[in-house]
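[Meeting: bench + compute handoff]

Bench side (C.D.) handed over the final construct sequence. Compute side (W.E.) agreed to return the predicted structure before the next meeting so the bench team could plan truncations. Sequence as handed over:
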Amino acid sequence: MNIKPIRTKKEHKAALARVYVLMEAEPADGTPELDELELLAMVVEEYEDEHTPVLPPAPLEAIKFRIEQLGMTDSDLDRILGSRQRRSEVFRGTRKLSLGMIRMLHKELNIPAETLIKEYTVKPRKRTVRTRVRR
């Protein structure tokens, strides 16, 4: 067993291949193969954490996921955001989350505030132009 830090994509690919082989072999407790698998998994995880960080979800995706996860309804979210109209505007993209909404979502749904604060674009409202007709 010769495990060393992973420094390149090629080394990462080779390490993943070795992890696969070791996992398929299903090594028994206390064997050198299991020790190698555990150490190699730690080295691979360290490389992946450094080179392929997982980005936090977009605020609206985080809210949708958490609502679904908790088995909540739209009316539950209406209560948290203040009204059905606000929920609709937020999810249509015509209104940003206010500080009060962020606080309530963090408190009620336990979504990290950093995720809710993340910048996202708001769609401009369509405005109708009224013209006067002269008679």
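W.E. noted at the follow-up: The two ends are 93 Å apart (CA to CA). C.D. will use this when planning the next construct.
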